[in-house]
Amino acid sequence: MQKFLSFVLVLLSLCSGTAVAQKQFFDGWENRVRSTTAQQPAWAVPVFTSSSGLVQLARTDMIRQITSARTTTWNYGGSKGFNLIPWYRTEVDINLPPYIQHNNVKVKDGAGDLSLLLKYRVLAANEKQGGYSVSAALAATAPTGSYSNGAVSATVSPSLFLGKGYRSLDVQTAASIALPTGRTATLGRPVTWNTVIQEKVAKIFWPEVEVNSTYYRGGPNDGKIQAFVSPGLMISKIKFSSDPKNRLGLVIGAGEQIAFSKYHAYNHELSLTTRIVF
Question: Which of 61, 174, 210, 243 could be a cystine partner for 230, CB 3.0 to 4.6 Å?
Fold first, then answer.
């Protein structure tokens, strides 16, 4: 009996130690996220353009595209997932494969590609100290798509992000190039450049206008340019708690890409986005 009681006490001690260690781990993580984000502008993450700063949130998008063949394609997930800040000034994104529905009997529905991103914030200052942010990132995709709903090869994409604010306005821009690990003649090396202008209105409303452009280099669309003007609105953020230390909140938004270039693979892309900040 005495041995059994000793065993129970040891087990309870181990469980108590594990609980304390877990609490310290999550408390340390939350403090690091608060410290990191406090040193950059508190701008809303745009509908399409990537943020020039670091964010920690879970995100899912629902996207409707009208293709050049006049069919409607739905993208559930939007190649979004979890954005984490595991280290100071560093963000890691795990973007889950979307599910793509073509509404076309000649094309099979299926999952898209998995992608990952590592982002480092080089410079930043919050609104009181200048309101700017500069980040660099390296993204990678894996050809996990089914039924030709993904790329035929993995890609690696270096990216640069810049942002500057003035009073209630901010401008953010992001540029990247996709470098295939194979099948370059099929995929080419497209350059993507997105820019957004936002204005904060009444604390949580962020109307915006984006320009989303892709410059095709190599591949079947070599030399072509695809460009959209994209009005949108973000509501950021609806807090779940009045505690200023509690980051938990809801962000929702919508936007539409309207083609203004001669070449475009789709048009009138409507995107509905939902994010949980934590």
Answer: 210
